[in-house]
Amino acid sequence: MKAKGTVSILVFFIVVLSTAATIAGIFSSEGPGPFEYETIRGETVMIYGKGIYQHMSLEVAPQGIAQDVVTLFIGVPILLIALYLTRRGWLRGRILLAGTLGYFFVTYLLYMLMCMFNNFFLIYVILTSLSFFALSLTLFSFDLDMLRTCFNKGRAMKGVSGFLIFNATIMGLLWLGVVVPPLLNGSIPLQVEHYTTLVVQAVDLALLLPIAFVAGVLLLKDRLLGYLLVPVYMHFLALLMTALSAKIIGMSILGTEVGPAIIVIPIINLTAIFCVIVIWKNINERAWVKIR
Hints:
Keywords: Membrane, Transmembrane, Transmembrane helix. This protein is an all-alpha fold. The protein has helices at residues 4-27, 61-87, 91-114, 121-140, 144-149, 155-185, 199-220, 224-253, 261-281, 285-291; strands spanning 35-38, 44-47. Helices cover 73% and strands 3% of the residues. α3 packs across α8. The longest helix is centred in the middle third of the chain and has 31 residues, at 155-185.
């Protein structure tokens, strides 16, 4: 990996800045506490009123805190482990590094776009940039022909691809169910609250879900790019769904109605983690050592 030194430096700053951002998100508590706010659309929204997320809604702010917990106690350690394994020459480590960097990129892209302006805005911008370039350098470091020879070609990897396609389709239909009805009847989705638009749904529908769907199709067709995108995306998805599970569980504890998501999201999360295990079992690390 020719850019190993550059990626290591970028990861160092990602770890330092994300640690600072997550600690502030978890432990900051200044502010008046919850209060009602009338939006520009004339609707009443309960505002969280505490810490750096004090201007976020009472429903969304705890989700940010839950994700901060996952990022700090799971994301950061995994990122450091992945970098260590990558520097030791492990193919599994490099794939894990790319997937984890994908998690940090998407996390702080959403924070940058959705969080109400706070003292960490520039930190979110910097983390988004650092993660993007570290992810790009890591992805471009793979030789696709070499990578393909290091995977066992069997039903297991096709099963992983099938799950990725299925999950992308289901999530896409779920978000369209949120977006389309209000567009047809001229109303505003409840999830908009006092924000400008549906940022999470927009990023998912425009980028993440199409990438997942295409990646799964490419691997099913035995295309080179599929052997890169599916493993990397699955590692990213496992970590992202862990954060989402934490959000759902946290909302449930706080008394927010989460419906079937309390069951569906953890099941998807566990399935994604199982798929990561399948991927690791189907990587021929010895072949990678011989040809790299």
